[in-house]
Amino acid sequence: MCELLGMECNVPTDIVFSFSGLATRGGKAGPHADGWGLALYEGRMARVFLEPHPAASSPLATFVREHPIKTLLAIAHVRKKTRGGTSLVNTHPFARELWGRHFVFAHNGTVKKAKSLKLGRFHPIGETDSEHAFCALLGALAHDFRDYPRSQSDLAAAVAAHAGKIGKGGTFNMLLGDGSQLFARCSTKLHYIVRQAPFKRATLADEDLTVDFAAVTTPKDRVAVIATMPLTRDETWTAGTPDTLWHFRAGRLVRTLAS
Amino acid sequence: MCELLGMECNVPTDIVFSFSGLATRGGKAGPHADGWGLALYEGRMARVFLEPHPAASSPLATFVREHPIKTLLAIAHVRKKTRGGTSLVNTHPFARELWGRHFVFAHNGTVKKAKSLKLGRFHPIGETDSEHAFCALLGALAHDFRDYPRSQSDLAAAVAAHAGKIGKGGTFNMLLGDGSQLFARCSTKLHYIVRQAPFKRATLADEDLTVDFAAVTTPKDRVAVIATMPLTRDETWTAGTPDTLWHFRAGRLVRTLAS
Question: Could you tell me which residues come within 8 angstroms of residue B118 by beta carbon, excluding any fewer than 6 positions away?
Answer without folding.
Answer: B136, B139
